[in-house]
Specification:
Helix content: 55-70%
Order of helices and strands: HHHHHH
Strand content: under 5%
CATH class: Mainly Alpha
Structural class: mainly alpha
Distance between the termini: 24 Å
Number of helices: 6
Shape: elongated
Largest sheet: none
CATH superfamily: lambda repressor-like DNA-binding domains
Number of domains: 1
CATH topology: 434 Repressor (Amino-terminal Domain)
Number of strands: 0
């Protein structure tokens, strides 16, 4: 597994810095456009909420991007955070590679 050194940017920061500020859109206006509560959007923007598949679809429609763009931002952020804040996954022992390909 290739380890990324720098923490990826949370998708909420992307929304704030690349969309809200340059387009002069308020959180309230975007929340209304996305048909979600201001509280839900605020959580995402402040890094305390995640981009779900449904939210990715809403954002992609609002900003003419792809849902994959938003999902990948969240995935990269989540994987980096798990890899760098948890050690439990390191205790998992890999299966011998022969057993996975036997009889294939």
């Amino acid at each position: 597994m290739k380890k990324m050194i720098r923490q990826p940017t949370h998708p909420g920061e992307i929304i704030k810095d690349d969309y809200l500020k340059p387009l002069s859109i308020t959180i309230t206006k975007l929340a209304s456009t996305l048909n979600i509560s201001r509280k839900t959007l605020s959580k995402i923007i402040n890094g305390n909420g995640a981009i779900t598949p449904d939210m990715a679809l809403r954002l992609s429609r609002a900003f003419d991007t792809s849902p994959s763009f938003w999902i990948n931002l969240q995935r990269n952020y989540d994987l980096w955070k798990a890899q760098n804040t948890s050690t439990a996954w390191k205790s998992v022992k890999p299966f011998p590679s022969k057993s996975l390909h036997a009889g294939v």
